[in-house]
Amino acid sequence: MSNDPIQQNELPMSVVFYKIEDLRPNPKNPRVHKPDQIERIAKSMIEFGWTAPVLVGADNELVAGHGRLEAAKLIWGRGVSFNGSVVREIRNVPRGTVPAILLEDLTPVQIRALLIADNRLAELSTWDNPLLFEFLNDLATENFDLKIIGFDDFKVPGDEEGETEKDFGNRSFVYAVKVECEDENQQRELSARLEAEGYKCQLLIL
N or C end: fewer C-beta atoms under 10 angstroms in the chain? Predict the structure, then answer.
């Protein structure tokens, strides 16, 4: 059996390049990308290149990849501070263009469902903490900047106040439930009732 990749003309879909101004973010996308996350995505794209094309539906509207699109705009706009310099290019991607896969065979209902699934299904996975610790420790000893992959506080064992493998593997997590209230009064009443039952509550307005 050949180990060669399937040729592009044998695939039902292929990567195409859109001008960045021709793509339309979905105005009903419920996924929120905060500025700090966009900055992190941008640094990841500078480090690794554009490794995942965006997904595009009818009328050039984005289905998945809103964060990557905003990160590209950031890089090509003001640039991103990276390894002591300001970078305004993405490796292997022509400036001002976006690698994309056009979803021509999905119905409008499937498109809307995929917009959610692309984010939600990844949230349902969990970490194998000992293996994660091993990966992070190896990267840290190679002086790789772990902030690029979203781990700001990891310290190599042996560092002052560093987290040991046992500590990391047994780390406790916070499990939360978000409840939407009709108004501030209902929010305070619910919080008071839950706190009376021994739960810790934090009032938020989103």
Answer: N
